[in-house]
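Protocol step 4 of 6: structure prediction from sequence.
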Amino acid sequence: MNKAKTPKYSPEVRERVVRMVQEHRDEYSSPWAAVESIAPKIGCSPHTLHEWVKRHEVDTGLRDGSDS
């Protein structure tokens, strides 16, 4: 059976946690260290949060990449 995956986190939660990473990035030795610290606080993996941060950066023009 192939169920469609429903998002575990609302767009609002994703937006808030990405903003947390951006706001606290300077408190850590690297952007990845910030992601690793913040991800468990909302119950997601660092990889997932890193993907959200990258997507946001592409969407807002902070990072080169496709917006697809």
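Step 5 (inspection) to follow. The radius of gyration is 13 Å.
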